[in-house]
Design brief:
With 129 residues, the protein is an alpha+beta fold. 31% of the residues lie in helices and 16% in strands. The N and C termini lie far apart (30 Å). This is Winged helix DNA-binding domain-containing protein.
Length: 129
């Protein structure tokens, strides 16, 4: 199996196996990689921010996925229940930066938290509409 494919196995507290979807695991890997500067956790660790979607798509996505398509990345975030922060929330998240709002995007998920990586086990793909 190619690196990054499938789901990661984690043993739960009760000894049961939990599966983290590949997309969620790769997203966490990007955020934990100090060499990737185009995507970072917000200071409180409850959301993340993509600083420049064009550069991120070109330079980062191909290292984790088989594409460099920003819209595909956004679609995956939506499928797993991530929410784009509103303008007011986004402004608060980027208030200490010189980046332009047009190229910066911030997202959150109640189970995707920097301090609590085990909660990723509960993130599930949404059922198709």
């Amino acid at each position: 199996m190619e690196q990054g494919e499938g789901s990661a196995d984690l043993t739960g507290l009760a000894g049961q196996k939990k599966r983290i979807p590949a997309f969620v695991r790769k997203l966490r890997s990007m955020l934990d990689n100090k060499d990737v500067i185009q995507i970072k956790w917000t200071p409180d660790g409850a959301a993340f921010r993509v600083f420049d979607s064009v550069t991120f798509s070109r330079d980062v996505l191909p290292n984790y996925f088989k594409h460099n398509n920003w819209q595909s990345f956004i679609r995956q975030l939506n499928i797993y229940g991530f929410i784009k922060l509103t303008d007011a929330m986004h402004t608060a998240a980027v208030s200490h930066s010189n980046s332009t709002p047009q190229s910066d995007w911030s997202f959150r998920h109640p189970l995707f938290l920097r301090k609590y990586p085990r909660r990723m086990e509960e993130i599930k793909r949404r059922a198709p509409k």
